[in-house]
């Protein structure tokens, strides 16, 4: 084979160069095609994702619009018929004397004045509440309260208060004076349940709670004190000054007072021989003095010649020649202030044995009672009965507005436990108390002799000097 010429070799070289270029071009084209394919696939995926997001956003927007429409409807429904409610314990929140004495008309005036007071306070304090309805519920033992008002000399007969209640109920459609009677369904229990019922009611904008005389409501208020939204929904209405436990909670609640509408002092019943004798003096206007009518009724004289009946009040019967007759039972009492009454109090034994009080060598009072004698379960059970200590341990309860139980049949062992319960309440006079019949505690039941503290520490209800009492009795003090 003949050798290749130089020129032929040059052509072969040029051909190899051209072939390499073609291969490079083909590789470039293939790479570009692959990249385009990848981008097309990514584009299609992004397009699918975008379409899906678009559909999802549209659905969310439609659902949001539906929810907003529902909220608007709910808000509109919640704004319908807004109201504020006043819950008053009528056994302690008592309207002023001049209203009660007017009977039915006084009840109507009391309701109207209370409505105006609540309306004005609400409009000034709660600017976001527009024209709410005012609902009022007063719960009380109507018959018992009427008797108390009569015995206190406020009204001349107990039925006047029943007339007052009738006028109150007939004044406004949403105002009710509810008679709870003297049984177990007491005013505080009913008010507690009605308050709980309205506390979370969206239509109820504010609750006025009138209970300043009764520490029993402190437990109810303490349950809500941690939730500021609930405390803002309750306004405490003051009549008589707040009792100690309630006063400690007034910083957490709104407090208001409708001046001139409610009594600011507790009712004090006159001694039996005073109000009974005043009633007797009223009836003595009749020609015969041999019969004593019911002191709770107004004496009447026989019909005159014209067929009319003359009614004589207790005041006019005793005023004699006075031209102006007193119009209230209190006036009757004042008119008879100079009259000598017969004391109807039962006579006491002629020579009763003097009571004694046991004391230690320091002169401190020592009560013979074993605080460990009452099992814890039994102690808690008797506490829950809410028995009246004075009634069951002393035989009489002088408080006409007492809210504790009086109609329970107490067993002997329960009475022992009740004595322990009573001793757990500190006596105001401490170890210096010289009342032999005092049922309250004169030393801390959890303290030990010589130790000036106890389990409760600084939170103990008993004073410091009521701790560490020497229980060795060395002398008796006659009272």
Keywords summarizing the entry:
single chain; 479 residues; alpha/beta; 3 domains; 6-stranded parallel beta sheet; two-stranded antiparallel sheet; 15 helices; 8 strands; 42% helix
What is the structure about, briefly put?
The chain is built from 15 helices and eight strands. The protein has helices spanning 6-78, 97-100, 104-125, 142-151, 159-169, 187-199, 217-224, 228-231, 244-247, 272-283, 314-319, 329-335, 376-384, 389-394, 412-423; strands at 83-89, 133-140, 175-179, 204-210, 234-237, 254-256, 356-359, 475-478. The strands form two sheets. It has a six-stranded parallel β-sheet, with helices on both faces. It has a two-stranded antiparallel ribbon with strand order 7-8.
3D structure, described in words:
- This protein is of the alpha/beta class and 479 residues long.
- Helices cover 42% and strands 9% of the residues.
- The chain contains 15 helices and 8 strands.
- The protein has helices at residues 6-78, 97-100, 104-125, 142-151, 159-169, 187-199, 217-224, 228-231, 244-247, 272-283, 314-319, 329-335, 376-384, 389-394, 412-423, and strands at 83-89, 133-140, 175-179, 204-210, 234-237, 254-256, 356-359, 475-478.
- It has a 6-stranded parallel sheet with strand order 3-2-1-4-5-6, sandwiched between helices.
- α13 crosses α15.
- The longest helix has 73 residues, at 6-78.
- The protein is elongated, with a radius of gyration of 43 Å.
């Amino acid at each position: 084979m003949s050798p290749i010429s130089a020129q032929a070799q040059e052509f072969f070289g040029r051909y190899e160069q051209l072939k390499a270029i073609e291969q490079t071009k083909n590789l470039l084209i293939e790479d570009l095609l692959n990249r385009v394919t990848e981008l097309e696939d990514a584009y299609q995926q992004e397009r699918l994702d975008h379409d899906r997001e678009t559909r999802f956003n549209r659905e969310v927007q439609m659902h949001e619009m539906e929810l907003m429409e529902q909220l608007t409807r709910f808000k509109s429904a919640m704004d319908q018929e807004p109201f504020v409610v006043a819950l008053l314990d009528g056994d302690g929140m008592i309207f002023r004397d001049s209203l009660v004495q007017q009977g039915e008309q006084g009840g109507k005036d009391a309701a109207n004045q209370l409505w105006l007071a609540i309306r004005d306070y609400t409009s000034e304090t709660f600017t976001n509440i527009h024209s709410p309805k005012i609902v009022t519920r007063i719960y009380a033992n109507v018959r018992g309260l009427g008797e108390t008002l009569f015995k206190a000399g406020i009204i001349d007969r107990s039925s006047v208060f029943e007339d007052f209640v009738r006028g109150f109920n007939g004044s406004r459609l949403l105002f009710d004076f509810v008679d709870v009677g003297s049984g177990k369904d007491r005013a505080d229990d009913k008010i507690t349940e009605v308050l709980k019922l309205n506390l979370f009611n969206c239509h109820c904008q504010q609750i006025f709670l009138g209970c300043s005389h009764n520490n029993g409501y402190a437990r109810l208020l303490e349950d809500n004190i941690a939730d500021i939204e609930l405390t803002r929904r309750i306004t405490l209405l003051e009549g008589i000054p707040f009792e100690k436990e309630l006063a400690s909670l007034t910083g957490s609640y709104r407090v208001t007072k409708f001046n001139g509408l409610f009594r600011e002092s507790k009712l004090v019943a006159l001694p039996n021989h005073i109000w009974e004798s005043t009633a007797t003096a009223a009836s003595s206007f009749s020609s015969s003095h041999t019969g004593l009518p019911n002191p709770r009724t107004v004496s009447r004289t026989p019909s005159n010649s014209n067929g009319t009946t003359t009614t004589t009040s207790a005041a006019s019967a005793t005023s004699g020649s006075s031209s102006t007759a007193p119009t209230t039972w209190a006036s009757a009492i004042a008119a008879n202030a100079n009259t000598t009454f017969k004391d109807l109090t039962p006579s006491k034994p002629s020579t009763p044995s003097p009571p004694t009080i046991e004391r230690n060598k320091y002169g401190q009072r020592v009560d013979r009672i074993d605080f460990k004698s009452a099992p814890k379960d039994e102690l808690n059970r008797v506490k829950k009965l809410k028995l009246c200590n004075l009634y069951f341990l002393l035989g009489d309860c002088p408080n006409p507005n007492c809210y504790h139980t009086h109609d329970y049949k107490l067993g002997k062992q329960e009475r022992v436990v009740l004595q322990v319960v009573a001793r757990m309440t500190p006596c105001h006079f401490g170890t210096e108390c010289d009342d032999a019949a005092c049922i309250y505690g004169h030393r801390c039941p959890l303290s030990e002799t010589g130790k000036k503290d106890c389990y409760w520490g600084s939170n103990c209800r008993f004073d410091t000097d009521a701790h560490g009492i020497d229980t060795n009795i060395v002398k008796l003090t006659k009272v």
